[in-house]
Write a structure and sequence with these properties.
Blueprint (H helix, E strand, L loop, with lengths): L4 E2 L6 E2 L7 E7 L2 E7 L3 H6 L13 H5 L1 H4 L8 E5 L6 E8 L9 E10 L2 E10 L4 E11 L4 E9 L4 E13 L2 E12 L5 E11 L4 E10 L1 H6 L6 E9 L2
Antiparallel strand pairs: 1-2, 3-4, 4-5, 5-6, 6-7, 7-8, 8-9, 9-10, 10-11, 11-12, 12-13, 13-14, 14-15
Length: 240
């Protein structure tokens, strides 16, 4: 796999060449092994229970969970292994080679359960570049009339606790409305809060259009220099 980002407004390359994921892998009954530049095992589950369909421009988790957003999500020289599913339970571990560069190791794992309407996941990452340790617990439950979402995260050394709640509500066979609220609180600082409302419309089995609105309090704007206190966003996702 080779992934490259492009800026949609001017066509320029976003970031380094193939700077998202670039790896060779092998999968089978034993699970999956990847070698290269890979999302960490922690990143695998980081957006699984986020409102607004985990869209970066709209999700209150992405925009408020500053410490979680700051983790190293795809280090160079990565080694990754994911287990097959055992009765709904599965997991993954990842690390990377320093290749002579000190303090650049990122080690992570996750365990999760997916069975029927219930999803539960725990992720942990030890990030040497920032000397930070991240923990995240996420869960969702599909009631049929709505899918309930919840996330708790902690950055240990920064002494930051974060949580979010949300719901995805199908209002038609091809239309889902998502609402979410998130808070990030560092010890001794004001709480940063934000909420979002988004909708996703299935144009076909593989193509979905989405749009939404996000709003944050003053503490969140001040905590992220230059961040907007509100924004609109639209997107189009196609699965090849």
């Amino acid at each position: 796999m080779l992934e490259q980002g492009f800026n949609a407004d001017d066509g320029t390359v976003s970031g380094a060449g193939f700077g998202r994921q670039a790896y060779v892998g092998l999968s089978g009954g034993f699970g999956e092994v990847k070698l290269g530049k890979i999302w960490t095992a922690y990143d695998d589950i980081s957006g699984a229970t986020d409102a607004a369909f985990n869209a970066i421009v709209l999700s209150p988790v992405w925009l408020i969970f500053q410490s979680q957003y700051g983790y190293t999500y795809n280090p160079n020289n990565g080694i990754y292994y994911a287990t097959p599913s055992f009765g709904g339970f599965s997991g993954a571990v990842s690390t990377n080679l320093r290749e002579g560069v000190a303090n650049t190791r990122v080690s992570a794992f996750h365990v999760k359960y997916e069975g029927g309407p219930l999803f539960v996941a725990l992720g942990y990452q030890d990030d040497e570049p920032t000397n930070e340790k991240y923990t995240r617990i996420g869960a969702s439950y599909d009631l049929g009339v709505a899918k309930l979402l919840g996330t708790y995260g902690r950055a240990k050394n920064a002494d930051v606790d974060e949580w979010s709640v949300g719901a995805d509500v199908p209002v038609a066979t091809n239309l889902v409305v998502s609402v979410g609220y998130a808070q990030s609180k560092q010890d001794g600082a004001k709480a940063e809060r934000g909420w979002s409302l988004a909708a996703a419309y299935a144009l076909s089995k593989r193509t979905t259009a989405y749009a939404g609105y996000f709003d944050a309090n003053k503490a969140a704007v001040m905590g992220r220099a230059g961040a907007p206190d509100s924004r609109f966003g639209v997107g189009l996702k196609h699965t090849f």
